[in-house]
Amino acid sequence: MPFPLYAGKEPTTRMTVPPNNLPFLFAAFAVAWAVFFIYAAYMSWRRQSIQRDLRELQSTVELDPDPDGDEEERMGSV
Amino acid sequence: MAAIAGRGPTDSTLRVVIRDFRLWVLFATAALTIVDVYLIFVVAPTDQVLGHIQRIFYIHVPISILSFLGFLVCAVAGVGYLIRRGEIWDRVAHAAAEVGVVFVTLALVTGVIWARPVWGVWWTWEPRLTTTLILWLIYVAYLMIRHYAPTPQQGRAWSAVVGIIGFVDVPIVYYSVQWWRSIHPVQVIGPEAADDALEPIMARILIFSLVAMLALFAYLLLERVALRGTEDAVSVIRRQGTYD
Amino acid sequence: MRLLSATFAIAWKDVRLEFRSRDTIVSALIFGLIVVVVFNFGLNRAPGSLGPAAPGLLWVAYAFVGVLAMNRAFARELEQGALDGLLAAPVSRDAVFLGKMLGTLAFMVLIEAILLPVFAVMLDLPALSPVLGLIILLATIGFATVGTFFAAIAAQTRSREILLPVLFFPVIVPVIIAAVEATALALQGGPMLPIWTRWLPLLVVFDAVFLVICPWIFGFVFEG
Questions:
Q1: More confident residue, B204 or C190
Q2: Fewer beta carbons within 10 angstroms: which end of chain C, N or C?
Q3: How much is the ipTM here?
Q4: For residue B4, what is the nearest residue in chain A, using CA coordinates?
Q5: Strands (E), chain A
Q6: pTM, rounded to two decimals
Q7: Which of B158, B168, B176 is facing C173, going by the closest CB pair?
Q8: Is the pLDDT score of C175 beyond 90?
């Protein structure tokens, strides 16, 4: 039995010739890598866009001589 | 602003170190993955019984193991947050849970794709698949709870306690499902197979695959922690801007 | 000692409240009945009794009724800031948790006891066995412990009706499995050994684990 975790009695007796199941193999790998790539790319993209926001906000807050003044309006526009 | 300004220089150095480290992990992940693909598709022998589909095994098993690692990290960081109260604990817990949910989702998807050609069904209530599905449900609820919390502080505390309860529940769920299945066996699945039956070359490739996936896991986790840090910094400034 | 008296005071308060109003108890009973009737149409395709599905049906009904009861237990505390008063009382969080949990447990056991003979008639079960009583008690302790904890979280959100079942059901899966299997064995009258070697110990372990963990982290639920 070459396959420990999901080894089944039924398949070993039923399938004597290695079956052609390449499409399933490629589907599994394609889905896994696509999900990982999209997840990583999304996080990276979102972090960069937020960092841009952050720099903008920081400069707005720090440049404002009167933080109790009309800050709210400018925050709203960001 | 206090939260940001108060961090001081050591924190920003730390952040540069983390950023550089993240890049190194990314390079390592890419290199290991390329070698891994070569090993899986070229070096690994084709299974005589199951055919090429058996190669899913080399990613399915590491993905499942690493999803458990994610939930372990989540629970430990949750305890850390409740004791130490640093926001970094909460960030790590949240990131680990989210990466864990991505991994556990893929474990389910690859498991389903495995089941169809090998067992002739898409889904079967096999103990591991069933436990994985329940894990998925628990940790999706974990991710939901943060959004329902009225304040961020409540969100952090609630997430921590739900993460702890969920993780404690995992072994109980696993054993109960295992016993349940031993009474009502699924026709196509045999009982626990002997683990020593794996061919040595297959075992070695599996371990390599696990290392490659671990690097990927670490990269995603670091990226997610960094993203949460940036998100938090923005929301702190926004709140200051709105309420000052 | 103070812990115990505070616990019982809180539990007794909830039980008395329940009996004064009686609206939850009636709606919970009717709801349990409705679950069985509706599932009957889903499962009972051939004429006759539900047979092997009966224990599962019993526990699905109990779990649904339990969620209803637990949602009520903390929703009531939110009216007119009662929860703040409860938390401000000079008793430990453990007592608050155990008191709410005991109140919920008493309420659920009462409903289950009333529903059991009704289900026994409708599902054609030989329901009067002491073992079944023990199974129901242990499983309900598990329900009430985890459920009270999650209800305390869910009650503080706007969408408590959906959040409680989403949190509750995945965690409670081992209790459902153990209760259904043990009930099936008890009702078959066949070999009872697995009840004692497997399912009741599983229930006891689940109850013990969460009776330790839930009071321990209950205080964090009321932060912020």
A1: B204
A2: N
A3: 0.88
A4: A58
A5: none
A6: 0.84
A7: B176
A8: yes
